[in-house]
Q: What sequence folds into this?
């Protein structure tokens, strides 16, 4: 990302009536050939739901010299299920079953 422009009011002349309250514009880079790689591993303090997130990106071509530029990105994300004991996640069938037992 190259920059972020925030117009709080008066943007209707440029963007139309949808921009009465303001506009946030994300200005992206037009010519990038740099590479980037990242990796992240998370582990909660109470166990379960460990996760991994990784990715790479690389730009090719020079917009001024070649007349083209493309950016490729590849990412991977995975998160384990949370530990079953003590979690608030309950399936709908378990909740219905619990309601029917308490109503009897």
A:
């Amino acid at each position: 990302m190259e920059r972020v422009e925030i117009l709080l009011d008066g943007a209707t002349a440029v963007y139309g009536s949808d921009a009465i309250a303001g506009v946030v514009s994300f200005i992206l880079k037009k010519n990038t050939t740099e590479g980037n790689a990242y990796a992240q591993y998370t582990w909660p303090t109470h166990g379960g739901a460990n996760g991994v997130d990784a990715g790479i990106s690389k730009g090719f071509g020079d917009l001024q010299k070649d007349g083209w530029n493309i950016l490729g990105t590849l990412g991977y994300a995975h998160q384990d299920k949370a530990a079953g004991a003590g979690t608030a996640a309950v399936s709908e069938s378990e909740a219905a079953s619990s309601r029917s037992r308490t109503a009897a």
The beta strands are 3-7, 23-27, 35-42, 51-60, 70-79. Residues 3 and 36 are 19 Å apart (CA to CA). The longest strand covers residues 51-60. The chain has two helices and five strands.
